[in-house]
Amino acid sequence: MRGRERDRKDGGGEIQGRVPPSSPPSFLPSLPSSCRARIPPASYFRETCGDRYSQFDDAGFPLVDARGEALSKAVQKKLAKEWEQHKKAHAKLEGKEGV
Asked: Counting CB atoms within 10 angstroms of each CB, which of 7, 29, 50, 53 has the fewest?
């Protein structure tokens, strides 16, 4: 038996003696989507998770994390995807309120 096989209990799916990998930090706090949609896109990241980032560009997109390190391309891509979704939700909400 090697690796994970020797750590299995009764052949079931549960692995004993190992710590599961921690999940990556959530980019967004658990706010209801209706509350998040009301935040203007330019201040979205500052208001929802401003303590995680220290610098933002003119549009409000984070550039540097709280430790002073530039964001990795993977993190930028995830944030950009979330930001685009937020802009759509905000525009949809603005359309409903304007009617």
From this structure: 29
